Amino acid sequence: MLSETERQAIDAEIPHYARKQAVCIEALKVVQRHRGWVSDEALHDVAGHLEMTVDELDAVATFYNLIFREPVGRHIILICDSVSCWLMGYGALRERLSERLGVEMGQTTADGRFTLLPIVCLGACDHAPAIMVDEDLHRDVAPDHLDAILERYE
User: Fold this and answer.
1) Taking every pair of C-alpha atoms in the chain, what is the biggest distance, in angstroms?
2) Confidence of residue 136 (pLDDT cuts 50, 70, 90)
3) Is there a contact between 12 and 26 (Cβ–Cβ < 8 Å)?
4) Of residues 31, 37, 21, the one with CA closest to residue 1
5) Phi, psi of 122 (to 5 degrees)
6) Has residue 65 got a pLDDT over 90?
7) For residue 6, how many C-alpha atoms fall within 13 Å in the half-sphere facing its CB?
8) Staple partner for 22: which of 16, 17, 57, 79, CB 3.0–4.6 Å?
9) Is the pLDDT of residue 126 over 90?
């Protein structure tokens, strides 16, 4: 069941759109912000609230890779795998991150601290390679910078 806070946040977005259903991405982001991810139950509740079918909303949720349909760690690490990042050291960065965290892409560390995910582009091609941890963009990242970056996130 959607909390009153979630429902109010979703309803506050509705006047900004021509159709109630157009709020669906914002609604999913509201749920994710409060719960960390979007469960099947939450998806069902949001679909009902927006007068959509669950399949319609799930199609939207699974299209956008930043809507998490399964539990994730406390911090999300997005590693850019654009052409620029590939050319500037993505491979070494990814290998060091996987080694340091003990996980592969799409996995969460055993302590639930980090989830490592690929992303098509972070828009920092002039400072590749780049990663984003939660809302923080880190540019010109070398493998030996990773320990200092990760220490900032408990």
Assistant:
1) 50
2) very high
3) no
4) 31
5) -105, 5
6) no
7) 21
8) 17
9) yes
